Amino acid sequence: MSKSLRLIYAGTPEFSVPALRALHAAGHNIVAVLTQPDRPAGRGQKMQASPVKQAALELDLEVLQPLSLRKSHTKKEIRALNADAMIVAAYGLILPQSVLDMPRLGCLNIHASLLPRWRGAAPIHRAIEAGDKRTGISIMQMDAGLDTGDVLSTHPIQISELDTSQSLHDKLSACGADAIVDTLMKLDAGLVSPQVQDSSLANYAHKLHKSEAKINWSEQVETIARKIRAFNPWPCAFSEIKNKNLKVWRAEIIDSKQEPSALISIGKIIASGPKGVQVQTGQGVLNLLEIQIAGKKRLPVEQFVNAIDLSSDCFNTADE
Description:
The chain is an alpha/beta fold. It folds into two domains: 6-205, Formyl transferase, N-terminal domain (Rossmann fold); 212-307, Methionyl-tRNA Fmet Formyltransferase, Chain A, domain 2 (Roll), CATH 3.10.25.10. Helices cover 25% and strands 27% of the residues. The protein contains eight helices and 17 strands. It has helices at residues 17-25, 51-58, 72-80, 97-100, 123-130, 165-188, 221-230, 301-307; strands at 6-11, 29-34, 39-41, 46-48, 63-64, 85-89, 107-111, 119-120, 134-141, 151-158, 204-205, 238-241, 244-255, 269-273, 276-280, 285-293, 299-300. Strand 16 (285-293) and strand 17 form a beta hairpin. The termini are far apart.
């Protein structure tokens, strides 16, 4: 086993759990886990612990849930932990410079892109939406900027044509767990050469908004198909038909060239059956495979079309 280090782990969502478990399994001494405070969730709005807190308690680790890391008493508490490093993965709070400077090896971030591409809040979704062929994990030495620190290691993975944000999230989460264990060991041994990011190549992965998920059928079929994958599972691409919102969970391109015409307008359902609901886009035809009327169950298309006849309908276009 490699040398055991005193670590603080800071993370909140499901993405961050595998790395916490991997560091613990590697024999490191995780002296505290920082995570967001419990928050109300679900229909009953009951207080719910974050996935990282749940995992930390299962591993019998100390959990700290400050509202901010800027308070003097919180900084004092972190400093007293005398950590060799702080590992950060989708924590959700800003680390002030004084906290960044505390650990001997600094604060290391597990970021879900190949930096400097896709700095920011939603790198997984934006990579799929943009049509990137690959992404990966960057282990970064944190500084005061937004994902601007020196890169300690990169770990590329391919994006398949079937990947959704959920499937890519799961791949990157597992990749990040392996990457941080390996990089941390090499950093402590002096075997890592930090690489300064080329900011001229940087772009920003803006946070998702529900309004983005409304399908604009005037766009090209490839663009729409990527958005459906990028917004699965949240906020989920949708369109309006028969005065109802229809969520689209899965779709495939069956024609990338067909143009709208006087007989087949943009948003027109060309065919509807057990093999899919075919819709004319601004260029090309999209076949919807898994859909859901608001308030109803998510269904594969063969079940959906048995319940609702869409064969002569047209989806609302963006300007309606």
